[in-house]
Structures are given as C-alpha cells and as structure tokens.
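Bumping my old thread because nobody answered last time. Still need a sequence for this structure:
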C-alpha cells in the first residue's frame, strides 16, 4: 500500500470513529474535505430541510448563522435532496450559476465565505432521513476525480452515521429496516465481498469494543490475529462471490479462542444478479452470558422466580455444587428445586435441560 492509499485509509478510519466520538465528529467536515481534495466541507443529517446533525467548520462556514436562518433559503438544498441516493453533482448541474448568484443566500451569506461552485451529494440514511455533503474549493472548480472520491466516501459516511444515530437513540432499531436484529444476543453483520460492513447489530458492535480480538476499522471487521483476519476475509469473499458457507474461530486479545464465526451468502440463489453480492456473518462468543433473562424461563415454563434464577445460573456455567453454595442452601434442597424444574420443563435431567435452553431463540428478553 502506497503513502496515498494509507492516508485515505486513515481518513476513512476517522469517518467511522466519528460514530461514537463527538470530538472526531466535530472535525468530520475536515476529514471529508481532505479525502476529496476540497477546502471546505459540511456533512449533515436531514429530515427534509431540517438539520438533525451537522459537522461544519465553525470559523470557515459560519455555522451559527447558517443554522439560525440561511439553511432555510439555501437554493442548493432542494436540488441536493432531489439527487438519487449515492449521487454527487456539481453546482451547475443542479442550478444555473445566474440563479444562485441572484439569490439572497449567495449575496448575503455564501459569497462571504467563497462558496461559489460547490459539489454536493446525497445518500439515503433511513426512511425519511438523508445524509448530505457539501464541498467547496476556493477559487477553483471540481473535476471528475473529485466527484469519484466524494462518491467513495459517501458510502462510508452512511454506515458511520447509521451507527452514530443508533448510539444516540436506543430505539433506533425501529428506524432501520434491519432493526429487529438488534434483539439478538450474538453478533450479526452484512458485508460486501471486500469485507466492507453495510450493517452490524449492537451485539457485534459491543464485541468490537471489547477484548474479543475483533475490531471495526475503516468499515471492515479486523481480527487481532493477522492470519485469522486473512482467513476471515477469504471466507467473506467466498461467501459473497462463490456462495460458499464457511466458519472459523477467532482468538481474543489473550490469544485463546474467543469467537465462533459462521459466514454464509446473504443471497442463497445461484442465479446471477445485478446487485452487489454480500455475505452474512454470525459471530458468537464462546464463553459468555447468553443474555437470556430469568423472566424468559419463568414465562415459558411457569417457573417460580427462584427456579428461573437457577436455570439462568446453570446456563451461565455454574455447577450444582456452586449453585448450592452461592445460594446458601443444602444440596438436597437444590435437588428438590431441580426436580420441580425438570417436571415443569419436561427435561429428564440437567443435560436435557441445558439442551432445551440452548434451543431457545437467542434474543434479549426484558428482565
């Protein structure tokens, strides 16, 4: 990888870091400007013309003035919102220069900051919400190379801002079409053949923030162990392009196996399709609390609160002896409680009970 490629990779990494770091988000406009080759940039999340989130240079762009009034009369905004998702357009492709120069917005605001021939783009973020970018070169116009780089970074911005909005609002699952996957206790991701993430549920994002040995960097899943990371990348490529199912183990930061990964085609059809092929990843910790709350057992099997807690503790890995000691009861008392649990669940013994629990949907259930 040459120096320029490394620089762009580092900038993309900053884009993804802006999802959960407000300080990095504040400078996201500068990151985008540097990637594209612009002097000024703004990144905004909008519902119509309403601005929900924005990163724009305070000194250069006069954000306070823009947010107080000028965003309402910005002549470029309606044209930007009319672009197709993923499209980037030059100023003159959206409006004739004379129309812009005769507007109050240009004469009273934009011209003061040297914004004369911007390049703008839009991409769908979620139903009814758009992600837009605006870029400007002082005293110069953009060319096709700039446009291509803007298109490239738009997809990364989309993914990062989706993560940011989910982190900002815990009911964000209702916003996204894939929101139902947020309830799963194991990690789920959708990636293209090059390993770029299009979706990751909260369980996977939590794994990537912990000591699991798995990280999200520059929009890709990165394994702590380089060889395992290469194997994972190959599995994702084969699943997306060749419709092959694969699996692997990933080591945690301690060097011990920590995650089980299943990779399969997102589209199981073998018929050719115009859509870009993708892989679906299911990632489960080998040693972790399943996330199944005792109340789930209580409602399913009519267990008492105590019996529900016993089942949860057994599933978490406690032995019968540890359970009795932790609960301060005699082994005979615990045996009586277990017998009642076996009767209510239909399990013949502890092994059968654990097999039954393992067959339950692995979703987070309210405590």
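Sorry it took so long. Here it is:
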């Amino acid at each position: 990888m040459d120096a320029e490629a490394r620089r762009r990779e580092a900038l993309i990494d900053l884009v993804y870091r802006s999802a959960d770091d407000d300080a990095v988000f504040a400078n996201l406009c500068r990151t985008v400007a540097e990637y594209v080759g612009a002097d000024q940039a703004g990144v905004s999340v909008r519902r119509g013309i309403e601005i929900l989130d924005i990163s724009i240079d305070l000194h250069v762009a006069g954000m306070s003035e823009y947010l107080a009034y000028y965003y309402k009369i910005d002549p470029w905004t309606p044209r930007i919102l009319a672009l197709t998702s993923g499209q980037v357009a030059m100023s003159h492709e959206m409006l004739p220069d004379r129309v812009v120069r005769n507007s109050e917005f240009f004469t009273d605001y934009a011209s003061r900051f040297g914004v004369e021939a911007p390049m703008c783009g839009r991409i769908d973020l979620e139903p009814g919400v758009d992600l837009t970018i605006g870029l400007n070169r002082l005293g110069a116009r953009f060319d096709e190379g700039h446009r291509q780089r803007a298109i490239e970074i738009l997809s990364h911005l989309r993914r990062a801002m989706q993560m940011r909005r989910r982190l900002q609002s815990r009911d964000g699952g209702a916003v996204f079409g894939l929101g139902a996957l947020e309830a799963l206790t194991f990690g789920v991701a959708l990636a293209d053949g090059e390993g770029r993430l299009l979706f990751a549920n909260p369980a996977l994002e939590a794994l990537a923030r912990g000591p699991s040995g798995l990280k999200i960097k520059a929009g890709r899943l990165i394994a702590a162990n380089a060889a395992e990371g290469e194997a994972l990348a190959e599995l994702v490529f084969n699943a997306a392009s060749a419709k092959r199912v694969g699996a692997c183990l990933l080591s945690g930061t301690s060097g011990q196996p920590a995650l089980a990964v299943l990779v399969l085609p997102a589209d199981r059809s073998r018929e050719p399709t115009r859509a870009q092929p993708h892989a679906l990843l299911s990632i489960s910790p080998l040693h972790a609390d399943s996330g199944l709350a005792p109340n789930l057992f209580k409602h399913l099997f009519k267990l008492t609160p105590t019996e529900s807690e016993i089942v949860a503790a057994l599933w978490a890995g406690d032995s019968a002896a540890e359970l009795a000691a932790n609960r301060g009861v005699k082994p005979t008392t615990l045996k009586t409680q277990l017998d009642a649990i076996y009767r209510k669940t239909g399990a013949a013994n502890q092994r059968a009970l654990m097999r039954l629990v393992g067959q339950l949907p692995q979703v987070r259930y309210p405590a």
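Confidence is low (pLDDT under 50) at residues 170-177, 270-275. Let me know if any region looks off to you.
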